[in-house]
Amino acid sequence: QLQFVESGGGVVQPGGSLRLSCEASGFTLNSYTLGWFRQAPGREHEEISCISTNSSTYYADSLKGRFTSSRDNAKNTMYLQMNSLKPEDTAVYYCAVRWASCDTNYEGYDYWGQGTQVTVSS
């Protein structure tokens, strides 16, 4: 059974950092394109980053430089390191995978994590 377990969300002050993890079971992450998305209240899913199977990484322009995504094949886990967090980063964050190449559309992915809440507030 394919499964994701997301962790690492929480409440952080502006300027702080968090690292989200998404551990996969039942399948091998390095065979998939990996995506991170977020959804703020009342808004559509927003693409954060995408790692292709050849490890090329794409970031949304607005988040480039603050967010870093990565993959640890040995742990079958993907990560999203978030630095210099701002209140507008408050959202539910999702990991996702798909067989095909990167897609900006959340619904274009094949499997998703359960989501983890990130709240940036003083």
Protein described:
With 122 residues, the chain is mostly beta strands. It has no helices and eleven strands. Strands 2, 4, 5, 6, 9, 10 and 11 form a seven-stranded mixed β-sheet that branches. A four-stranded antiparallel β-sheet has the order 1-3-8-7, with no helix packed on it. Strand 4 (33-39) and strand 5 (46-51) form a beta hairpin. The mean pLDDT is 95.
How many strands?
11
Order of helices and strands: EEEEEEEEEEE
Class by SSE composition: mainly beta
Largest sheet descriptor = 7 strands, mixed
Strand content: over 45%
* Low-pLDDT segments, ≥5 res: none
Mean pLDDT: 95
Shape call? globular
Task: Considering the chains and any ligands shown, give keywords for the structure.
single chain; 122 residues; mainly beta; 7-stranded mixed sheet; 4-stranded antiparallel sheet; 0% helix; 48% strand; globular
Topology:
Elements: E1 3-7, E2 10-12, E3 18-25, E4 33-39, E5 46-51, E6 57-59, E7 67-72, E8 77-82, E9 91-98, E10 111-112, E11 116-120
Parallel strand pairs: 2-11
Antiparallel strand pairs: 1-3, 3-8, 4-5, 4-9, 5-6, 7-8, 9-10, 9-11
